[in-house]
Amino acid sequence: MIREMDDFARAVEAALFASEEPLTPAELRAHVGDGGDLPATLAGLAQDYAGRGVNLVERGGRWHFQTAADLAHILRRERDETRKLSRAAMETLAIIAYHEPVSRAEIEAIRGVQVAKGTLDVLMEAGWVRPVGRREVPGRPLIYATSVEFLSHFGLSSRRDLPGLDDLRAAGLLDPVDLALEGLGGQSVLEKDEEEA
Known about the structure:
Elements: H1 7-18, H2 25-32, H3 38-49, E1 54-59, E2 62-67, H4 72-75, H5 87-99, E3 102-103, H6 104-111, H7 117-125, E4 129-134, E5 142-146, H8 148-153, H9 165-170, H10 176-183, H11 189-196
Antiparallel strand pairs: 1-2, 3-5, 4-5
Helix pairs in contact: 1-3, 5-7
């Protein structure tokens, strides 16, 4: 049911609709001012747009309109050429997502092999990974984290929505080597990481 909107809600809706990029609440306030309760307005608008052809969603603290997932195929004019990530890129992306911020050396220590420069470049070109600074250790290595585009692409509101160990086990996505080590009484690498977190 669509509710009658006040001027503040209309301004918020217009700012979100006109923006080319998702907006943070602070950016929205810069456009519409302090004329109302922004969190309540965003929640109300999200509820109004739920179930419609366009939804108001929050991804990584930024709000934007997007086509309803079940209708996205109607709007595609061209088929995007799907580019599969290599196993190394998938492993690197998973390590960054679960351990961010993380340096190349830390990624290599977890994977047990060197990370090719091209692997991180592919993830940065996709917009899923970004450098976020330097670690305050000798050599000051770059550290990497996931981006808002990563959250949006995978339909996550935040990193807390990433599947946990039990979810991965239930989906059959754990590496057979990890499961075999666990069966021999060794501790799973994932369990060790969860305990340390």
